[in-house]
Amino acid sequence: DTSNEIAGDGDIPHRGIGRARRMQVARPELQHSVMIEAVENHTPEVIIIDEIGTELEADAARTIAERGVQLIGTAHGNALENLLKNPTLSDLIGGIQTATLSDEEAKRRGTQKTILERAAEPTFQIAIEILDHQRLAIHKEVGAAVDDLLRGKVLYPEVRKIDRETGKVEILTGRESVTVGGQVSISTTESPKEPVNIYPYAVSRGQIERVINYLELPATVCKTIDEANIILALKNYAKHGAKILELSKKHKIPLHTVKTNTIEDIQRTLKDVFPDLVSDFVMDDVGSEETRDDEKDLALEEVRTAINVVMDTDKAVDLTPRSANLRKLQQELIEQYKLDSLSIGQEPRRRIRIFPPPRPGESV
After folding, report:
1. In which element (H, E) is residue 58 found?
2. Short-list 96, 38, 26, 90, CA closest to 63
3. Hey, what CATH topology would domain 196-273 get?
4. Are 321 and 352 in contact (CB under 8 A)?
5. What is the per-residue pLDDT across 207-257, written as a single tens digit (0 to 9) for each?
6. Scanning 15, 16, 151, 211, which has its CA 20 to 30 A from the CA of 176?
7. Which residues touch 339 (CB under 8 Å, ≥6 apart)?
8. Is 353 exposed, middle or buried (CB count within 10 Å of its CB: 0-12, 13-18, 19+)?
9. 31: part of which helix (H) or strand (E)?
């Protein structure tokens, strides 16, 4: 109890901790050594730590967990993803390391050869996010959750909500579609029984329809958001503050993100919508001529969507890396909208950056 926050000030602990033994810490920087002392000298069944905030404390927590003592602790962070990005505390959930895949494995996964992966088993097997005073998000398998995060997937924790008036706890065991403005949207874990209307945002309509037809899913691609049951958006265009997030919240429509416009990523996302209808088998991207036409349409569709984002936010937007021919087509379309653009990056990651129009009085 580093700052006397668990059992109160003074030598006599608060009666609320029952028969538990409290170990006070003389100075905050000594907490890690007191943690180890608790295990070595007191043979506890459970250790509760007020806050883990340094690398030494994270190492001590791993040592305690490896000795078979149940560990309960707190750490600051808005979500599991924050801990993953924190180099000091990431070891609590397994840590991350860089791995190099073979050409065949990278092609099978549809990723680059160099990827991030979990370095070790997490110190804590279960993580609880405090969303607000009434709601908790529970990750029952931290290792699996971290693996999903590193693969760019959206997490679906169990959400528990307490009723202020009755004190009853409601367990929402569904899937979290997206977090919009602090609101967690929940959908059931079973596939929808009625046909689903999908509104694509910066995602290839042709690619979505191909996956739907191939897997025979009860879904159609609609043209307006008013008809939609769900929104399928490209991840780059669904970041914080994006217009599509506001529309999703306004129309109360769940939003699912797609990492890229590939068949594989679209299928992965639709698996979240139709969990018992979509298998882990990844369909082949068939039809080379048709695929080339789709890529052209997709590249131009991305430009139109990006221009809307540029005009809405007054900020430059980078497009997805494309071949030289497709970049040329994209720049020709951008010129029609009287906007400036520039090719940036090195092959094969070379891409177009679209700039907002200059403000009155600014030079071009």
Report:
1. helix 55-66
2. 38
3. Rossmann fold (3.40.50)
4. no
5. 888 888 877 788 899 988 888 989 998 887 887 767 888 888 888 888 888
6. 211
7. 307, 310, 354, 355, 356, 357
8. middle
9. helix 31-42
